[in-house]
């Protein structure tokens, strides 16, 4: 590894070494768009900050830290990034490699050029109140192409939740063999533009619906589509709501089976800063909670202008619906847009785990006394104080044991016929020595087979 990359990694922990090398490669080879920066020696070519953001997909704050970490090699500028003489000297002798900023480059140059001509002929303007950041012309082409390449266009009913990027028009121009496209959008300007363009270009089977996703979905559209594409507000409330609406839109019938979403897809775009990985984790948890399979995730698939906080980029999640998919949520937070300064509501601390134990000795499962003793030993090992206990018998020798703890509760149910038991543990304070809970349970319940899951 190059020494300069090694040193920069120390102050840029969010960046991979190859990403750092890739940025240096861009600076060394001046791969910008020809912007000029002013310095004491006159005009020379340099990169604007937002150009580097667009080239790399790095968030604005990440770039700011990177510039600071190599300030001795850069000319002083808030708006531009340009090597000084020392930077040129050091980098010119290095064999730097370019970095592949996205693993997938899909699309159609002719279609992107056509979209550029169309977009420039419209009066559409980004509306901050709807979290609109227009995608690049190439991205609009790519969004259409990925739907087609995944087999989600020909003969399909397509729903697009929000289409200020004019993906419906791109599909109509290049991939017209869909059954129908319905564009749902809150912005009348977007809908009117799409209607006008579809008419002028002779595009068939594209319809528009004025719809605020915070309102109930009209029954007419429930279960009417094979695939949904959406680029929602990048808040957990926005993602959850649009996923829920997407699930409501798709057809539940698969291979003659009712209530089965198999073979249906949601194409979701989501972007976030490196500094907030917990937000991305929350979004991925939502996908799993809905019973959606992440078939593909393509980092930095889509590019935008004006969204520097997320690197002018978003990732594509290709979500496959399954027989276990459910629409779960009702709108509990009307503030779904980022401009509303949506803050994650703080909830009191919770440690919540579930455990499934298999191959538990049947003599243990049949003994209330031994089960209670095993739980008591587990609680003692992890400093969980039991204040009350209740045991309930069920038919077929099943038992439910409820332990009220000083900090919450532990619930256990047994299945004698399966030699199995389930434990649900929730506490309002951190659990002592939690990393060894599985070992303790294996020991106390005399088994070697367990599944553990952290809920929150």
From TrEMBL:
Q: Does the keyword Oxidoreductase apply?
A: no
Q: Which is one Pfam family of this protein?
A: BpsA_C
Task: Please provide the record's keywords in A-Z order.
Answer: Autocatalytic cleavage, Decarboxylase, Lyase, Polyamine biosynthesis, Pyruvate, Schiff base, Spermidine biosynthesis, Zymogen
Domain of life of the native organism: Bacteria
List required co-factors.
Answer: pyruvate
Alphabetical list of InterPro entries matching this protein: AdoMetDC_fam_prok (IPR003826), BpsA_C (IPR002723), DNA_methylase_N6_adenine_CS (IPR002052), rRNA_MeTrfase/Polyamine_Synth (IPR051720), S-AdoMet_deCO2ase_core (IPR016067), SAM-dependent_MTases_sf (IPR029063)
> Which Gene Ontology terms cover its molecular function?
adenosylmethionine decarboxylase activity; methyltransferase activity; nucleic acid binding
Q: What is this protein called?
A: N(4)-bis(aminopropyl)spermidine synthase C-terminal domain-containing protein
């Amino acid at each position: 590894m190059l020494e300069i990359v090694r040193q920069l990694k120390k102050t840029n922990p969010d960046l991979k070494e190859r990403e750092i090398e890739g940025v240096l490669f861009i600076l060394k080879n001046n791969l910008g768009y020809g912007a000029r920066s002013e310095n004491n020696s006159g005009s020379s070519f340099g990169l604007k900050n937002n150009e580097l953001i667009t080239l790399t997909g790095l968030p604005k704050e990440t770039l700011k830290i990177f510039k600071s970490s190599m300030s001795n090699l850069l000319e002083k500028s808030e708006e531009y990034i340009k090597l000084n003489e020392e930077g040129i000297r050091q980098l010119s002798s290095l064999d730097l490699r370019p970095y592949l900023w996205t693993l997938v480059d899909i699309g159609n140059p002719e279609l992107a050029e056509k979209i550029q001509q169309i977009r420039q002929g419209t009066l559409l303007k980004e509306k901050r109140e709807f979290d609109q950041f227009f995608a690049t012309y190439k991205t609009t082409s790519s969004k259409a192409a990925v739907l087609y390449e995944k087999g989600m266009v020909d003969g399909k009913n397509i729903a697009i939740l929000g289409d200020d990027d004019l993906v419906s028009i791109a599909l109509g121009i290049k991939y017209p063999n869909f059954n129908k496209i319905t564009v749902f959008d809150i912005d009348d300007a977007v809908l009117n533009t799409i209607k006008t363009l579809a008419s002028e270009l002779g595009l068939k089977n594209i319809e528009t619906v004025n719809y605020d996703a915070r309102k109930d979905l009209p029954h007419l559209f429930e279960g009417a589509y094979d695939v949904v594409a959406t680029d929602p507000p990048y808040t957990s409330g926005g993602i959850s709501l649009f996923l829920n609406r997407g699930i409501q839109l798709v057809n539940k019938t698969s291979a003659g089976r009712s209530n089965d979403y198999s073979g249906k897809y949601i194409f979701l775009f989501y972007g976030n800063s490196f500094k907030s990985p917990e937000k991305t984790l929350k979004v991925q948890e939502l996908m799993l909670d809905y019973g959606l399979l992440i078939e593909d995730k393509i980092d930095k698939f889509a590019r935008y202008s004006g969204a520097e906080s997320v690197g002018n980029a978003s990732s594509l999640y290709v979500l496959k619906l399954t027989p276990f998919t459910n629409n779960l949520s009702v709108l509990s937070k009307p503030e779904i847009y980022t401009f509303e300064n949506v803050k994650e509501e703080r909830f009191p601390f919770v440690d919540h785990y579930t455990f499934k134990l298999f191959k538990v000795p049947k003599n243990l499962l049949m003994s209330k006394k031994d089960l209670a003793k095993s739980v008591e030993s587990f609680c003692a090992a992890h400093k969980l104080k039991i204040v009350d206990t209740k045991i309930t018998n069920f038919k077929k020798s099943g038992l439910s044991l409820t332990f009220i703890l000083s900090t919450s509760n532990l619930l256990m149910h047994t299945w004698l016929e399966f030699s199995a038991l389930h434990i649900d543990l929730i506490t309002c304070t951190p659990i002592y020595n939690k990393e060894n809970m599985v070992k303790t349970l294996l020991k106390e319940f005399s088994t070697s087979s367990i599944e553990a899951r952290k809920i929150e």
